[in-house]
Design a protein that fits this description.
The protein contains 10 helices and 8 strands. It is an alpha+beta fold and about 300 residues long. It folds into 2 domains: about 150 residues, no CATH class; about 100 residues, Chitinase A, domain 3, CATH 3.10.50.40. It is an enzyme of class 5 (isomerase).
């Protein structure tokens, strides 16, 4: 493939959030201890060609693949080790080891894998027509964020302090009743009672977008109507008296504002598909035994 300047698009292996070279090299050579079997070698049921991947290898790798069930974690770890070994073997077969200088904190092995993937996976840049078609078919995804402008009074209480949280809620309910009768007292109550630094601004939080506050607080605040909330809002920090000053729904974005984001997304999707096809080719070339059984056990 002819050399060309490429933007970095971090191709990842399925079920991993790491770029392929990093994931393939992940914890390679770790000297952590795995399970021991009374001095006997750990059993091996997974092979790439004539290379055995032991249960001890898989157990060490599992700590980097959290899942709801150990069977799923084991399968993800086994797949990651197989991918690493397949890419290592292909680098060796093509004589690419040592052909690239590492970039940044990249290891020599990661650099060789990067060169391998740049050589074998063709970069396909989506056309203007591709991007516009995706935009037209997914317009609902391209909106500016919803926003609310709010003030609050926080009465803090640790999550495990049952009495403290009951008192905080009761005090918030009392303040809400007073504020319903006299809304002008909000800033004064905030300065005198709130445990949040925003008390210095009378409880003013400014404009909030989704993702800027704790999830449980955000979920409730974005459901409130403009005005004083009729009930305390609970969060991990305690209870809040909340007043929504303004609410602004997200507006539709035009194609020009999101074209580059769409192009990057579509390019990454194509490269992911090509990567999976390439890994299947390597699996057929070098031979893998035992992975299907491990993944079947994970359900």
């Amino acid at each position: 493939m002819a050399a060309q300047t490429q933007r970095v698009l971090p191709i990842t292996v399925i079920d991993s959030d790491k770029p392929v070279p990093e994931d393939a090299h992940h914890h390679h050579g770790s000297d952590g201890d795995g399970p021991r079997s009374l001095g006997q070698p750990a059993p091996c049921m997974l092979f790439v060609a004539d290379t055995a991947i032991s249960e001890a290898d898989i157990a060490r790798e599992m700590q980097h693949h959290r899942a709801s069930r150990p069977e799923r974690s084991r399968a993800d770890a086994a797949r990651a080790l197989v991918v690493r070994e397949l890419l290592r073997r292909e680098v060796e077969r093509l004589g690419l080891a040592g052909t690239a200088a590492p970039i940044g904190r990249e290891t020599a092995e990661e650099a060789a894998i990067r060169i391998l993937l740049e050589r074998e996976l063709e970069r396909r840049v989506p056309t203007e027509e591709d991007c516009r078609r995706y935009f037209e078919q997914n317009r609902e995804r391209f909106r500016s964020p919803d926003r609310v402008r709010a003030s609050h009074i926080l009465l803090a209480a640790p999550a495990d302090d049952v009495d403290g949280r009951f008192k905080a809620r009761s005090e918030c309910e009392r303040m809400i009743a007073e504020l319903q009768a006299n809304p002008a007292l909000f800033a004064d109550f905030a300065m005198r009672h709130s445990h949040c630094p925003s008390r210095e601004q009378g409880g003013e939080l400014g404009w909030l977008e989704r993702g800027q506050t704790t999830p449980e607080f955000e979920r409730q605040v974005f459901r409130l109507r403009v005005g004083l909330a009729a009930y305390p809002v609970e969060s991990r920090w305690g209870y809040h008296v909340v007043e929504v000053k303004e609410a602004a729904s997200g507006e539709a974005q035009d194609f020009g504002a999101v074209r580059e984001r769409i192009s990057d997304y579509l390019e990454l999707q194509v490269q992911q598909r090509e990567l999976q096809h390439y890994l299947l080719e390597l699996q057929q070339r070098h031979g893998v035994r035992g992975l299907e059984e491990i993944e079947a056990a994970a359900g």
